[in-house]
Each structure stands twice: as C-alpha cells, then as structure tokens.
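It would be a great kindness if you could assist me with a short task in structural biology. Thank you for your consideration; the sequence and its tokens are set out here.
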Amino acid sequence: MNNDMLIRITRYYRALNRLRAIGLEKVFAHNLADAAGVSAAVVRKDFSLLEIHGQKRGGYEITDLIGRISSILGKGEPQNVIVVGCGRIGKALMHYSGFEPDGIRIVAGFDTDPIVYSDASHPVPVYPMSRLEEIVETLDTKVAIITVPEAAAADTAEKLMEAGVLGILNFSPITLKPRPAAPGEPCAVIHNINIALELEQIFYQLQFPEQRKQGQL
C-alpha cells in the first residue's frame, strides 16, 4: 500500500465512524468518495485491492467495513503516544481529546524545564527527559510527537530511537531522518510537519488563481 492509498484509507475510516455515529448501517462508494476527495471508482479500486467487497445495490455494511479497515490499519488496542516538548504546541496536543475516537492515546509528556514537569495541572503526567527510556518501556510506547525547538530536535529524535520509539511525528522546523537500522532491527519512521512551510506553499498558490482552476497547482 503506497502513502497516497494509506491516506485515503484513513479518511474512509474516519468517515465511516462519523456515519456510524449518526446511526447509518450501510454506505456506498460515492459517500466515501466525497469524504476522501476522490471518485467512487477510486474507492472501489482501493477496496478491491484490499479484498473488500460490497453489493452493487446494497453497498457496504459500515460495521464490517470499520472492522476490516481497523485490522488493515492496525487499530486493535489503543495506541500510546508521548509528546516531547511541552510548550504551547505540546500542551495543546496533550489537552486535545479528538485523538481518542481513532484509538490514539496521549499518555505522557516530557520536558527539560523543571517548572514544566513539576506542574501537576497537565492532563497527562509530564516527566523529565532523564526518565524517557523508563516511561517508554513501562507504557509500551512506540510513537512520539516532537515539539521542541530546532536546536534540540535531532538530539531528541536520537534519544527517542535509543529508548525504543519507532515512529516520530516531528513538528520542529527542521527535517529529521531516521538513522540506519542495525542488522535485524526495524528502521524508525519519521514524518516531518513544517507548518510554516505548508503555509508558505498556500500563500504561493493563492497568487495564481487561474492555474488553481486548471489543477496545475
């Protein structure tokens, strides 16, 4: 499954949960196509590749689809995630409750500032970086979100990988790359999200309305 297909499948999954929440039991390809911003033909092709089959007139059973896609996405037990860097972005992530319906749980935060990790008002415990390896192992955590300053990002990522974290979502303004894995060991996965860069691209595209209409940007 390539990355584009994975993004679409994730969008289908979220749309299906919304539809189930309002009491619907069946869904058609065009319903999911609208949610994912693709055509119904793409939805049917994706499902065919995943060996998911519906009925031409009856559509797809929503509960069955959610179960099948949950299995594909590895959504069994809730997945624990930690946040490293508990400044404004980190605190916002820790307070955000919208991850829970997707089976994602922010279970701990980490910071180098004693004032931050001594503050008991956080919705989840915040620990000093010296306890990183201990907490990662105790909470069986494989994924972390980095929201530290640029200068600390590379060192933070290295410490996370040394502690056993295999997936990193990086919000710092520097592009991180996973270190080469030792023979027989899995390689870490790092996704970099540079908010300023994304906004710059939007501003650039806004300068060319005609090209946007023609789908060139």
About this structure: The chain has ten helices and eight strands.
